[in-house]
Amino acid sequence: KMASLGELTAGIAHEIQNPLNFVNNFSEVNKELLAEMKDELDKGNVDEVKSLANDVIDNEDKIIFHGKRADAIVKGMLQHSQKSNGQKERTDINALCDEYLRLSYHGLRAKDKTFNANLKTDFDETIGKINIIPQDMGRVVLNLINNAFYAVNEKKQQNIAGYEPTVSVSTNKSETHIYISVKDNGKGIETASQNMIFEKFFRVPSGNLHDVKGFGLGLFYVKNMIKLHRGKIALHSIPKVGTTFTIWFHTKEK
């Protein structure tokens, strides 16, 4: 848990800086606008004052929006660091997946500036909020994404002409199930290992680009966390082509 939290730190710093920049910039602009309003009030230009006031209101809306964005990032970090209480909560699974995809990517980028990959998302907006244990599911998604980034980075080191590392996260809802998929076009998993990958002592690399001997949560524990949600996880991997992990839950899960 602490290792994965450490990997998030740099990503969180990067992500939170963007909305904070907006908050600071619009706050400075509003200070200038309010000073102009005082001047126009002294001159008795009521119409100009109203126009400036509307500009301030528009900027305040932007400050509120980006402030809430920063707040959501911090809450996500705190939630990830907290010990799971085992209680399911109504959670926006699309937002959770998107957050961890970008935080994982920027965290790895902070450790190795040469690392780069295409990020793709395809979220089914009809899913809405679902009942999950957000801390546990966040760790599941984070580990699958970290492993995907590790796989594409390993393949990139082979200097294959035209190769573009790509990690995709998608969600989908059918009449009976909700699906989460993490896909990469990395080095793939050897056929002999695929039958053992969910066993207790089989570990997959964590995505630590400076220490490829590091290990992730372990897919045995990932699978067990998903079982706690009465869900399942499946692997589809072609060596040298790529890997897809798919998680699914029944839509009627309470």
Element layout with pairings:
Elements: H1 2-43, H2 46-81, E1 89-92, H3 93-111, E2 118-122, E3 129-132, H4 134-156, E4 166-173, E5 177-184, H5 191-194, H6 219-228, E6 232-238, E7 242-250
Parallel strand pairs: 2-4
Antiparallel strand pairs: 1-3, 4-5, 5-7, 6-7
Helix pairs in contact: 1-2, 1-3, 3-4
Annotation field: number of helices: 6
Quick one: biggest sheet? Answer: 5 strands, mixed
* Secondary structure category: alpha+beta
Task: Estimate the helix proportion, in percent.
Answer: 40-55%
Q: Which labels suit this protein?
A:
254 residues, alpha+beta, two-stranded antiparallel ribbon, 7 strands, 18% strand
Describe the structure in your own words.
The protein has 254 residues and is an alpha+beta fold. It is 53% helix and 18% strand. Strands 2-4-5-7-6 form a five-stranded mixed beta sheet, with helices on one face. A hairpin with a 3-residue loop joins strand 4 and strand 5 (177-184).
Task: Summarize this entry quickly.
The protein has helices at residues 2-43, 46-81, 93-111, 134-156, 191-194, 219-228; strands at residues 89-92, 118-122, 129-132, 166-173, 177-184, 232-238, 242-250. The chain is of the alpha+beta class and 254 residues long.
